[in-house]
Every structure is written in C-alpha cells, then in structure tokens.
Amino acid sequence: MRYQYRIAGISIIVDAPIEVTDTEAFALYREPVAEDGETERDSCPVTTAMRENNQSTHYEIHLIADEYMPKVTGTLVFENEMNRVYQVNDRCLHLFHIIFTTGVAAWNWIEPKNELQLHYAPAASAYFKNSFGIFNAAGFERILFQFGKFLFHCAYVDYKGHGVLFSAPSGGGKTTQGLLWEQYAGAEMINGDRAVLEKTKDGYLCHGLPIAGSSGVFTNRSLPLSIIFRVQKSDVNRVSVMTDEEAFQAVFSELTINLWNDRFKLAAVEFAMRLCQEIPVYRLECRMDEGAVDTALRELKFSKKKR
Question: What's the pTM?
Fold first, then answer.
C-alpha cells in the first residue's frame, strides 16, 4: 500500500506492507496518491513558487518487514534513548529502538539517496502502523537535509502573512510568546515547537510540520521568513540586535542536525551563516505579558534585510 504526504514542499511516498493510519497532525499533510498530474496543493501559490525555484521534490520510504538484523561490526558514532548509529566501513547503519522496549525495532543504511529502505521487526509492527512511528524511525531531519532544508526548534507564527519565529531552549518561553502574539497581535500560531527552514532564490521560507512537541499546534502552512527572535526570560521587555557570532550561535544551536555526519554539519554551518546575514535575528528579553509583544512589534521591518 502506498501513502503520500507533502511536508515542507517534499512529496513523500510511504510504501508499506501494512495498513498505516495517521495521527490528527499527519492527516493534515496526507494527499491522495497521484499517478499523474497535480494534487490540489500543487496549484497553491507557495507550492508553485517552490516548483519555480526547482524545489519539486520526491522521496520514498519503503517499509519492509524483516527478521534479519545485520551484524554490527563498526564504530558507534551516535547514541540516544531511541537511536544508535554505527560507522561500518564507508556506510552508516541506523538502529531504532522503541522507548521502554528491548531489542532493535527497525534498522536502515543511511545513504544520500531520495529513498530509504526501513526494515522493521515483525514483533514491532504495531508501532509502524502509525505514520508518526514511520517518520520517527526514518529520521525526518535527514530527509529534509537531502533537499537542503533544516529542522529548526522554535515557535512559528503567522503575522500578516509573514513568518515570525521565536527560538529558545526547551522551557525558554518561545511557545508562550507565540500564544501572546495570538492574543494581542492578531497572529496565528502555525507550530509551537518546530519549523522547517529553506533558502530559495527569493529568500527564506518557513514551513509547518506534523510534529509539534507538546504544543499540539501543527498547521500546514508555508510563509516567507521575516524575522527571528531569540527569547530570554527577563524582568524587563527589551529588544537588541545580536552580534554576528551571537546570531549564528542562536540559530545553529536550534537546528536539528546529525553532528556525526560531517557533510550534514558543514551544510548546516553554511546555512546558518547565510541566514544570519540575510534575516534579522534579535535578542528578545521579555516578561510573559502584552508588553513583550508591543516591544517586539516595534522591531518589525519586513521590507528590510539585516544588511
């Protein structure tokens, strides 16, 4: 069975031997599988602009039930509670674990291709009957990287057709600022936790995602990126321009990248450096009140670039 999604301008086909259901979020990004011609979203202005910028993209995830597990003989280069990556000669092997379970739930070779063969253990098939489980195991940041796009940790707000981003470490108040803008500035929260960023010939775009942390806000919308605020909780409301070094650190630190992949890391460094030269990045010291919104609004100069 084949399932089609369009996320951040990427048409992604999931080819699965089992029936896949969607979360509420992923259902917003699901499209009818198109044999020929365009889907309804292909004719929208932002999608048309991306196609004109040579952003017509396609990726396939092939889900394969497999009892076989390749022998791990390489060097462990990354590990967290759900993932392990091994360097095996000139290839990387990704092992995916479901939290609170034992054994490998899925595995795949990480390769610079527009397709992924995701092998899953039949005993773990229930996890992969959900689209979130498939994308979680596939490593969505690597799919984006194949197309020059990057996952950015932020609250993403639509203010009068402009993408406004609030960035901060977890618990730093970014989502609260987005909600304050909804309440006091007539903005709309697009995603409370993540956005996808990409560079086009006309500037930068930010895209919605079906992944939104605990915010529960995952609107499917793409907008021109206009400004980034680095949120810092404070007793005062104050905005200041960040130095080049500060702006780079603020952006780079919130990109989701594979630091063990030198090509990925270098591309992310170059992307963050260019973005900080072309998009205003401000420090927003703020209380969690209406005054913080008023202070930030005074800095919006959508017609001007930083330099």
Answer: 0.88
